[in-house]
Each structure stands twice: as structure tokens, then as C-alpha cells.
Amino acid sequence: MHAKLLSKQPDFMLLYDLARCNANLKHYDLAEESCREAIKICKSKAVYKLLAACLIHQNKIGDAIEVFRFSLRLFPKSSQLYTTFGKLCADMNFEDDALKTLKAAIKLNDNNIVALYELAVLHQKREEVEDAIDLYRDILNRGMESASIYNNLAMCYFYKDKFVLALTCLLKARDVDPTSAETLFNLGLVFASLHQYCSAAIHWKAAVVFTNKTNNFVDQEIMTLISACLNVITNDDGTNI
């Protein structure tokens, strides 16, 4: 801020750095102001992206969409801008716009892993499971591994009642991130579907340990599932344990 006051004329890098600092401090209104000043000097992809992010944080979604649309007219070959805009559309449940935008990002850069992943998530959300599976497997074949990719792929297989494939993917997800409550919970679901109630209870108990403690309702639901498993195990002759 002091540097801005001392500057005799507007300086693009100074304004951009100031915007980034304010954004990091979560002073999004001040960051927005600096971004808009910087754009008057130089129309930069980085500034437009930061400006859109600041607007989203301020819940100015309509303004953010307009910023993305304007920036894409300036930079029509930016796969990264298309990706970020596509994710925003998906988050706002504008699914058709998200689909079109993410596909445009991939067309510009077929190695855009982020766009491929977001498109896979969107297909999964729309219950277009085969398309989602193909995309997740494509990402894995490119050498990109993460717990979320394995977890999402597993739930696609679970949706198709392919429990062994789902279990295999979830175990890989657990290897990548043993503390993922989502993975542990889903492992419980698959084990329960395979009538392996002891294993299901163990993984659900582990999920409780790593679940966000601000969500007590989730803990209660998991504890209900664990109780149901323990009742089955107690009344069983041991063949399912």
C-alpha cells in the first residue's frame, strides 16, 4: 500500500502484487479494486482470473461470470481460463454450460488434467457413469494419481454393482491418503454390500476419527451404521466375519 502511494504513476505489477496480497489476506474487496486498476493498464489473464476469484469470494457470481466471458473473448485460446470458468459453471449447477466449457478447455489442451477431472466429475454427477469411468481411467493412464480420482472411480463401479472393482479402487485411494474420511466411509459401504460387516464397521469407525468434527449429524449417521453392523455380527454364526 505504501509503495502504491509513493508511485508517481500507476504500475501494473505493483497493483497486481497488491491484489494478490489482499486476496491472500482475504480482503477481497480491496483485491478486486486493485485488479480493476491493473486491468486498465494491462489486460492480463492472471489478473482476470484473480478478479473472478475475488468476485466469487464476495458472492458476486454474476459479475464473475461476466469477467470470465469477457476474458475469454480476449484470450480465446486459454485452456486454463476455460477450465476455471467451467468449474464455476459446474459449481453453480449450470451443467450444460460447464460441459461445453470444459470440453473447449480440453480441445485447446488435451493434456489438461484439471479439465479432464472436472469433466469426469460432471459426468458422474449427471449419472453418465461410463463417460466418467473412461475419463478417470484416462487420467490414471497419464500417470496422475490421487485419492479423489480412485475414490470417484470406485463409486462409479459401485453404482454399476461392480463391487470388487470398487473395492480395488478404494483400497488404492486409502493407500494414497489413509486419512480420507470419504474413502474410509465408502470402503464401509462396499464391505457392507459384500456382507463383510466386521470390515465395514472397522472402516466406518476410522471414518468417524477423520470426519470434520463440525458435522455431528454425519457422525451420528455413521455410528448408526456401525451399530447395525455390530448387531448383524453379534447375531451371526461367524461365517461373515
Strands, helices and their partners?
Layout: H1 2-6, H2 12-24, H3 28-41, H4 45-57, H5 61-74, H6 79-91, H7 95-108, H8 113-125, H9 129-141, H10 147-159, H11 163-176, H12 181-193, H13 197-210, H14 216-235
Describe this structure in words.
The chain has 241 residues and is mostly helical. Among the domains are: 9-76, Serine Threonine Protein Phosphatase 5, Tetratricopeptide repeat, CATH 1.25.40; 163-233, Alpha Horseshoe (Serine Threonine Protein Phosphatase 5, Tetratricopeptide repeat). It has 14 helices and no strands. The protein has helices at residues 2-6, 12-24, 28-41, 45-57, 61-74, 79-91, 95-108, 113-125, 129-141, 147-159, 163-176, 181-193, 197-210, 216-235. Helix 5 runs antiparallel to helix 6 (79-91), helix 9 (129-141) runs antiparallel to helix 10 (147-159) and helix 10 (147-159) runs parallel beside helix 12 (181-193). 36% of the residues are buried. The mean pLDDT is 90. Belongs to the BBS4 family. TPR repeats lie at residues 147-180. Pfam families: Coatomer_E, TPR_8.
Low-confidence stretches: none
Oligomer: single chain
CATH architecture of the domain at 163-233: Alpha Horseshoe
H-E order: HHHHHHHHHHHHHH
Q: Just give the CATH class of the domain at 163-233.
A: Mainly Alpha
The CATH topology name of the domain at 163-233 reads: Serine Threonine Protein Phosphatase 5, Tetratricopeptide repeat
Helix content range: over 70%
Structure summary, number of beta strands: 0
How does the helix and strand content classify structurally?
Answer: mainly alpha
Could you describe the largest sheet, including whether it forms a barrel? none
**Total of helices:** 14
The N- to C-terminal Cα distance equals 65 Å
Fraction of residues in β-strands:
under 5%
**Arithmetic mean of pLDDT:** 90
Q: State the CATH superfamily name of the domain at 163-233.
A: Tetratricopeptide repeat domain
Radius of gyration in whole Å, from Cα? 23 Å
Structural shape: elongated
